[in-house]
Design a protein that fits this description.
This protein has helices at 8-19, 23-31, 46-53, 71-78, 90-103, 141-151, 176-182, 193-199; strands spanning 61-65, 82-87, 108-111, 124-130, 152-163, 203-210, 226-233. The chain is α/β, with parallel strands linked by helices. The protein has a single domain (8-233), classed as Rossmann fold, CATH 3.40.50.150. Strands 3-2-1-4-5-7-6 form a seven-stranded mixed sheet, sandwiched between helices. Strand 1, helix 4 and strand 2 form a beta-alpha-beta unit. The longest helix has 14 residues, at 90-103.
């Protein structure tokens, strides 16, 4: 393996090797579908539902980053959206396809690392991320923002659901520098409303709030310890 840094991309790949969970980890994570993982339910995020119910979001072309077992992608397709859903786990995508077939909806599932995506610029009306962002290492945030910006049409919307700092299910309260000292994301980084505003300061804020908790089973998914944000490309 080449281990010489010639350019910025080489640097990113070196840092990835220190911190990124391999696809085999996520395949193992999704292999046992009986595990008591909150988001293994087959219901969409409550905040995502609220965006459509309020009329902010309508039918359009959507990119979901880190779709997991497909619950949000399925909801988006049911709203009449043309959905591209990306994940790096074969196991999660197999599960997502099974669910989509059961619901009789059409979704373009893509097996890919989000940073290796090749997409036409300004293609999507909406980009959604539920649970991917807090697994992104600090050195990849600039790449992540660039990906979202390049994907969205002018005035398109972007939304995330991520760990709140010190939340029940994750949300490590450590500095970016400490991530590299410890060589670990500790299961996922935690964020505050203020930090999300700073990171996504070039977007127009529509809403940033705590996720609303819903007792399961329910037609909407919501748990404590998560933040949700809806933003717009200016």
């Amino acid at each position: 393996m080449k281990e010489t840094i010639y350019n910025y991309n080489d640097l990113l790949q070196m840092l990835d090797s220190l911190l990124r969970e391999p696809s085999q980890f996520w395949d193992s994570f999704y292999a046992d579908r009986s595990k008591k993982i909150p988001f293994f339910v087959n219901s969409p995020d409550e905040n995502l539902v609220s965006y459509f119910e309020s009329g902010i979001l309508k039918q359009g072309k959507v990119l979901e980053l880190g779709c997991g077992p497909g619950r949000n992608a399925i909801y988006l397709a049911e709203q009449g959206c043309n959905v591209d859903a990306v994940d790096l786990s074969v196991e999660s995508l197999n599960w997502a396809r099974e669910r989509a077939n059961e619901k009789k909806v059409s979704i373009n599932f893509i097996y890919q690392n989000i940073f290796d995506l090749e997409i036409e610029k300004r293609t999507y009306d909406f980009v959604y991320d539920s649970g991917c962002f807090h697994q992104i290492a600090p050195h990849r945030r600039m790449s992540y923002i660039t990906l979202v910006n390049n994907s969205l049409k002018q005035n398109g919307y972007f939304a995330i659901t991520c760990f709140e700092q010190g939340g029940e299910y994750g949300g490590a309260n450590i500095t970016d520098w400490e991530v590299y000292r410890q060589r670990s994301l500790h299961g996922g980084l935690g964020y505050t409303v203020e930090k999300l505003r700073e990171i996504f300061k070039d977007f127009k804020e529509i809403e940033i709030r705590k996720m609303v908790e819903y007792e399961q089973p329910n037609h909407k998914f919501g748990v404590s310890g998560f933040l949700t944000a809806l933003l717009q490309k200016c």
